Amino acid sequence: MARVPPIRDFPTIRRSLTFYRVFAYATGVALLVLCLEIVVKYLLGYELQAFGPGAPLQLVPRDRVQGVNLSAVVQFVHGYLYLTYLVSDFVLITVMRYPITRFLVIAAGGVIPLLSFFTERRVRREITAYLDQREAAARDRVAAQPFRAARSGPA
User: Could you say which of 70, 71, 95, 140 has the lowest number of CB atoms within 10 Å?
Assistant: First the structure.
């Protein structure tokens, strides 16, 4: 028997979907910035520093950072956003009653550049269509009930 979320959980599903969408985009953007930071750091040999001597924001050689190392900040920000993305992913698959394998597929979006944007779009489209379909079917059942009751009444 398929595990189907009850209609009473639909508001929770919609809130969970919004939470997931926000962190899918935030994590995706942070991952792209992190990829750029990695290229600049390891291929070009520079790190981004803030509030160092000479300028408020500048690229400096990797071993000469004297101010706030914004390259490290980018790494930390992506890490925390990814953890929140995983929580939002887990909450969403739990309220939708998806299998854990679905969690793993969605979780990959936070570590493969650009994948979170495609995954978010697919998940949003699929869940929204599912909720709309279930709600329409429930409305049709409710609308048809008085008609059946009127037909089966005394003649």
Answer: 140
